[in-house]
């Protein structure tokens, strides 16, 4: 059982207090994701001396700096590549990556694809705020159709990436998406992702009032946070309505973003495969056989 009971105790244990206050704007969702991650690592009783937090560049990528543990703040889009190197050098470490939707699916998209395909044993916490927050709101590959960005002043005409479906199709062992507005399922997913061998991706839909909400006229912070409840639906409910619902119900939900666990499988991860390969080669060598 976790020894921590209150948010204050949790912050005292995991926050790097000298980094306070954060760079985050009022109403930003990033701090909430950090909080959920703290609860998850506390409930898992994760050894912080064996855990490394890795990030790229962006507001979301600042998160490792606030954690009282080893962290690597890398270059834009390359968090997964650096993390793969750390895991290869020391497979005993838990690797948790914080990345933005731009960092992960824009400039870093190819690293995401190949890490998911190889089933590399890392946990990616991708915070999707539909925009490039740090640089003032350029169009991200996850931006909804019609949304406004500095680089799409007349509305986005590009179809957005569905990162969870992509990771699922690539065979990642664990894939989930949640909003930041409810704690229990996201904390459970972060725990499942960390515990899972192989590639895990937990996507958070998180508000960015400054670069996205304001520009898209989504209202004040309270209204913006409400948007996420109003525009998402659990995968199970979506499937049920699409199968058995009336045309009216189908119309009502057809553009909602699905949340939930997209994939939870047990496929050997890259490093487990690698260990098996090494074992096989060493056995052959022991018998004097050729490789
Ligand atoms: C190679 C390179 N290109 C561009 C940039 C500028 N840049 C910094 S952060 C960023 C986007 C960050 O967006 P996202 O990853 O979605 O994170 P957010 O700030 O929204 O949390 C960009 C384009 C950079 N730092 N390095
Ligand atoms: S610009 Fe957006 S993502 Fe960045 S700290 Fe502000 S609200 Fe958060």
CATH topology: Rossmann fold
Quaternary structure of the protein: single chain
State the domain count.
1
Poorly predicted ranges: none
State mean pLDDT (0 to 100 scale): 96
Beta content: 15-25%
How many strand segments?
A: 10
CATH first level: Alpha Beta
The helix tally amounts to: 12
Terminal Cα separation, in Å? 48 Å
Give me the CATH architecture, please: 3-Layer(aba) Sandwich
Helix content: 40-55%
**How can the largest sheet be summarized?**
8 strands, mixed
CATH superfamily, by name, is Thiamin diphosphate (ThDP)-binding fold, Pyr/PP domains
Compressed to H and E, one letter per element, the order equals HHEEHEHHEEEHEHEHHEHHEH
Order of strands, main sheet, comes to: 2-1-3-4-8-7-10-9
Q: Could you tell me the radius of gyration in angstroms?
A: 20 Å
The helix/strand class is alpha/beta
User: Any ligands, ions or cofactors bound here, and which?
Assistant: thiamine diphosphate, iron/sulfur cluster
Shape: globular
């Amino acid at each position: 059982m976790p020894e921590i009971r209150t948010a204050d105790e949790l912050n005292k244990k995991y926050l790097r207090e000298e980094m306070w206050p954060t760079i985050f704007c009022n109403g930003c969702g990033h701090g909430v994701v950090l909080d959920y991650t703290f609860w998850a690592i506390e409930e898992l009783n994760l050894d912080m001396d064996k855990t490394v937090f890795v990030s790229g560049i962006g507001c979301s990528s600042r998160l490792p700096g606030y954690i009282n543990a080893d962290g690597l703040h890398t270059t834009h889009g390359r968090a997964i590549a650096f993390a793969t190197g750390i895991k290869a050098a020391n497979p005993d470490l838990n690797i948790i990556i914080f990345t933005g939707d731009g960092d992960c699916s824009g400039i870093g998209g190819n690293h995401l694809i190949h890490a998911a395909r190889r089933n590399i044993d890392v946990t990616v916490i991708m915070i999707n705020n539909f925009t490039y927050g740090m640089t003032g709101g350029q169009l991200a590959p996850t931006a909804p159709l019609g949304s406004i960005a500095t680089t799409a002043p007349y509305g986005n005409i590009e179809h957005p990436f569905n990162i969870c479906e992509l990771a699922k199709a690539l065979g990642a062992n664990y894939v989930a998406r949640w909003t930041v507005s409810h704690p229990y399922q996201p904390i459970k997913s972060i725990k499942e992702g960390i515990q899972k061998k192989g590639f895990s991706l937990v996507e958070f839909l998180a508000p960015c009032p400054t670069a996205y909400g304001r520009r898209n006229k989504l209202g004040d912070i309270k209204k913006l946070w409400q948007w996420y409840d109003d525009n998402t639906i659990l995968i199970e409910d979506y499937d049920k309505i699409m199968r058995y619902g009336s045309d009216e119900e189908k119309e009502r939900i057809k553009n909602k973003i699905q949340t939930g666990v997209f994939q939870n499988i047990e496929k050997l991860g890259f490093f487990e495969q690698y260990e098996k390969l090494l074992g096989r080669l060493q056995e052959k060598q022991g018998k004097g056989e050729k490789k």
